[in-house]
Write a structure and sequence with these properties.
heterodimer; A: Rossmann fold; Rossmann fold; six-stranded mixed beta sheet; B: 369 residues; ABC transporter involved in vitamin B12 uptake, BtuC; two-stranded antiparallel ribbon; 14 helices; globular
Amino acid sequence: MEDGIVLTMRGICKNFPGVRALQNVDFTLRKGEIHALMGENGAGKSTLIKVLTGVYDKDAGEIHVDGIDGAVTIRSPQDAQDKGISTVYQEITLCPNLSVAENMYIGRQKGMRVQWKEMEKKTGKLLESLSIPARPKQQLGSCSLAVQQMVAIARAVDAECKVLILDEPTSSLDDKEVEMLFSLMRDLRSRGVGIIFVTHFLEQVYAVSDRITVLRNGELVGEYEVQNLPQVELVSKMMGKELEGLSDLDKAASANASSGEAYYEAEGLSSSEAKPFDFRIAKGEVNGFTGLLGSGRSESVRAIFAADRVTGGKVTVDGKVKNITKPIQAMKAGIGYLPEDRKRDGIIADLSVRENIILALQVMKGFFHPLNRKETEEFADEYIKALEIKTANQDTPIKSLSGGNQQKVILARWLLTHPNYLILDEPTRGIDVGTKTEIQRLVLKLAEEGMSVTFISSEIEEMLRTCSRLIVMRDRKIVGELKGKELTQSNVMYTIAGGGKENAC
Amino acid sequence: MTVNTKAIGQVRREKISNANLLMYISIGIFAAMYLAGILIWGGGFRKPQQIFDILNNYAYLIIIGCALTIVMITGGIDISVAGIVALVSMVDVMFLKGRLLPAEGMSDGVKVALAACIAIGIGLAFGAVQGALVAYLDIQPFIISLAGMFFARGMITIVSVEPMQLTVQEEPGILDIIQHRIEIGFLGSPNKKGVMIPARIEIGVIIAIAILFIIAVMLRKSRIGRNFYAVGGNRQSALMLGINVKRTRFTAHLFSGLLAGIAGFVFMMHNVSGNATNATAGEMDAIASSIIGGTLLSGGVGNVIGTFFGVMILATIKLIVTASGLTKPWWQTITSGAMLALFILLQSVVLANRGKKVKLPGWMKLGKG
């Protein structure tokens, strides 16, 4: 093995029934580098990580680890850990009810007694040397997610790992916390740990990585030094095509529509979570709520759909005054709502793709008028094709689909009810660039066909690209509205910041 | 004793954890209730013997309370404990009467010791079978221990249809041993004639208190004890952290069975009788005691000192109900039920408010972006 290389994977192949998940993939990790593993959903990143951590057996190929002669076989995550390969997962795999120190050492101790004093002393030293802001005696559950993540990393590091795999570590952290995590990663790099960094966020890759390996459709695209690979090129390598049309979508139709007849109008609408607000959307218009996380944008659309308890306001739908206090009434009024948290509010993980698709339609028809099997199969087929949902068949449980495809299934669920007004709350979160663009295109196409759409996204760029009118919120109040030429990033920022010095709470 | 106080002292974190907060609440409530008893009803409440009577009557409940606390900390449940208590007491009484095995020529001391071994054996057998089914076949602990409860209750009638009693006429020597009481002179109180009657504690209480402290130290200090908490906190995480989850859950049920067996022996020493209706609904009292003492049904949180005070609270409720003239038995259960509901409400209110205080800064941060 060459000097300075801690891990090589050569010619890794892995097949699942009907899918070639990995084909002849090579991967090399050097000592003291942060190596980003990139690819769209389904490109084989997770499979490669799982082969490396012993969750899956590889079908072919060799793995070499520094300090071990010959090719190694990794049988289980525990075995991987013993060979110096530690993984920190997106979901924190620590026990929130135990103290920080216990979480560092539990499962690694020898002997019958717990050496509290010694354990807490060692933990204190390690936390200090990695500048992790936690106290050994603190209960883990009382730490922020970022700190919990860092404790998990500290545990991995203390187990003397040579290879540290960080699988989407930043997905639930805010900017400040991400920065904390990065400085920890840089610190570990300087100590000679090889880090594999799996993430969706392109900016983060450029902020912290030294090298990038790109996978696409289970094949290796290449390994690049970060400075030799501009961001746009990285995206095109991940997608396997040039980026034409990513930035300019035609939204003229929707812009014209916004002055037209209103489909939905609310006056002084309020809910248990949202302060009274006025809102209107025209037929065929795409508008959006923007503002910082927690500014009340989700709460507002939830009030429209009556997903929270509605406390007041006058609602007019298609010219008629309607009383909407329950989601079913909103659905009957032709409103569809795709919730922000698809794991919690959206998918029913154990049901099949087909059952998830027909769910909303079935609810609207009532459970005493079940759709027959043939109908549901036709519906499912139609939308799987129309939205290009990547699934083995319509009986596959939705939980085994990738995030982007799960999102498409939920979208299909609402499209099937043929709503006149569709609310999409963060439909593109956690899904890859290609699918994102597809969904944006779809939104505009639906609007052209006369559907009104309200779109919410944390990425302002995306909002600017899709919406022809933006409602800006701050501290749970609407503070501005932008349309036409006013729609620029700086205008949105300015309106969000707009003179308001008072903070939320 | 020094070890024990140290263990309790260390539990106190920089900030009181939820479990300990709940435990302190239950200690406070017990103290308040007992004080109210002294002030309002006086009489029996003033005598130290009242406390000892509670302990004498409920020693077995303290032990199965510990059993439930252990299982509940791992996120499980065991409702077979009272059935095991009843079965053990019946088998032991039958054995001591010489009806189970020929026991001629054995001294009374040896018989009692053998009875204790039988109790432990039965308990371990139940614990091992239930633990294996729960841990290795991954069957719901509620179902398994429900089956265990039915099985134990049914076995009692097979051992003897008739209730059995140890009597002074037939077994004077054995009764002498198991009914032995430790007398504490200075905690005594005068009777109606003004003669000082010393306070009396049964051997079962000593066993219960000893077990309480052993389990308290085990949960705090031993590897297996901490593994119980980890498994109850998050089973998946515990697995990823390298803990043998199956073995840990098995061990918890094994402990539970063992303690139930010992509790059966203690119950027999106090009641000197075997009966199919012994310790009826005792498992529910044990669950209630654990919950009042701060153990969460969802697992990962709890300790046995709290459970001890849970038992004391339940007992004091019964005393107060009786003292206030509601002598019908249903008033005790109704009041215990109401108190339990009130207590759980109090717990969730306290925890929810704590949660708010902890979460608020995070939310404010989100607002600022």
